[in-house]
Specification:
259 residues, mainly beta, six-stranded mixed beta sheet, five-stranded antiparallel beta sheet, 0% helix, elongated
Length: 259
Amino acid sequence: MRIRATVAAVSGALALSAFAVPAAHAATAPNVTFSNMKVNSGKAITIGATSTVQVKATYTLTHPSTVSVSNIDSGPLLYRGTSAQSADTEVISDEPGTCTKVSSTTLNCSATITLPAAELYNSDAGTWKEGGLAVDRTTHAMKWQSDLGTIPVRRAAKLTADATPEPVKKGATLTVTGKLTRANWETGTYAGFGGQSVKLQFRKAGTTTYSTVKTITSSSTGALKTTVTAGYDGYYRYSFAGTSTTSKVSATGDFVDVQ
């Protein structure tokens, strides 16, 4: 596809830079149709503060049996807005899709989409739409297709837990502290995530399942603190269910020896 996706900041968002493709000059768009688009196997895309995440996209490309696709490149894209062609926020596959012929009218294709945190604004977190782009290499005419699905793009969250004192006498008070933070793509750091409901959970030694002890709210700095009565040896952790813009996360369990 002589189109390469460069993710450039434009009006506070990502934009597709199709610098290698001249204007279409009113040529007829490729007679192909995208379907069965699936990005990242349908799972939410989580991006850390400084991460560059690559996800696989698969799709089906269909065309009339009278149309040759040997001169047509295609690829998946992610966008935010009303349509793939006019979106302000958009990322296209790194390279054209690699396709396998299934029949005289059908191709199964796959490609990779790259999302770098350094090129994202925090406001870009949320639900993105999936689309497709086909380009005729000779005429440079393009076929844009929108609304092929949706996928969440989320800021990564981190969570810690520390139960003290250790060891502790049975029936004594344990204090469990921790902190909830999430990726700030604009600064490349993790910052406290305040005002969020977080569950304190316990797993008795020798078992595999955590049970919720209580639910508390993170402070304005993301800090967590509560107390419980020590009863059995086991692991305490905090667990956050996530939001539409932030990933879910559970802290590593902190073992407490109850004597």
